[in-house]
What does this fold into?
Amino acid sequence: MMLTRRRLIAGSMALAVTPAQARGSYAIAPIAVADGIWMIHGADAPIGPANGGAIANIAVIATPAGTVLCDCGPSLAYGQALRKVAEGLTGQPVVRVYVTHLHPDHGMGIAAFDPQIVAALPDTIEALAREGRGYSDAMYRLLNDWMRGTELVLPGRPITAGREEFGGRGLRLLALSGHSGADLALLDERSGLLIGGDLVFHDRAPSTPTADLPGWRASLDRLAREPHGGLVPGHGPFDPGGRAAIAQTRDWIDWLEDALTQAVQSGLDMVEAGELPIPPRFATMAAARYELQRSVSHLYPGLEARLLPRIDRPD
It folds into this structure.
C-alpha cells in the first residue's frame, strides 16, 4: 500500500496540504469529436482538491446497442455524474465501460457501474487487485470529501485484443503497454477515431509512475502505424489530425530518458535533476516541471543502479 501511495504522490511537493473540504460538483462538459463520439476534457493539472481528481479525458460513444464509455474518472461521485451526462447525450443506457489502465484518475469511477459491464485487460485487473487499495488510500488523502463512498471495484469483464460490436458499431481493442503494464487503446471503425488512453498525452506532460519507456516507445510506434483520424489522448486537448500528440509524447519520453541519463552521468542528485532546463519546444505542455520532478523520483534510482553500479573490492 505504501508503495502505490508513493507512486501516486511522489514528486508532488508543490501541492499544498489542504484541510478537508466539502465536495463540490463535477463540471462535465462533453465536446463532439466524431460521429456519435464526445470527449470530456479533464483538467490539465495534477490531482488535487481544486479539480476533485477529474484530470483524465473520458470518451462517450453512442451505439445502437447503448452507450459505451472509455474510462470513468476518479470517484463514485464522478462516475455517477458521468453516467447521467452520457445517457442524456445518447438517450441510451451505459452498456460498456472500458478501463484503459490501472491509474485511479481513470478507473475509480467503476464504483458507479455494474462491474459486469466494466471491461479491462487481464493484467490491468490483476494490477488493480494488487495495488488498487493503495491507490484508493492515496486518493482519499489527496481529495478528502470528493472520494466519499468510493470503494475499489474490479472490472468484471476481462478482454483481450480483438473487436467488440455494439449493434453494428465496431470497436477494435488494442492491447498494448508502456505507460503501465497493460494499456488499452480503442479504434472506432465507423469514424476512424483513436482513443489512446495514457499512452498518448497532448500539450500536457506525460506521467511515468509505472512506465517502461522502451515498451512505451513500441506502443507509440504501433499507434502511429495504425490508420486513424482524430485522437483522444489520455490527457490534454483533442488532436484532430491524430499524429501530433503521438509524436509529442514520443519526443518527451525520449528527451526525458536522455536528460536523466546525462544527469546521472554528471553526478547530479535528484533535486538538481528535477531542476533541469526543459526545452522550449515543450513550452505548451501543462504540468511539465511537475511531471519532470515526479519522473525523477520514479526513474532516477533505476538509472543510477544501472549506470553507476557498486563495485566492491575483492576480498
Q: What stands out?
A: Residues 1-21 have pLDDT under 50 and may be disordered.
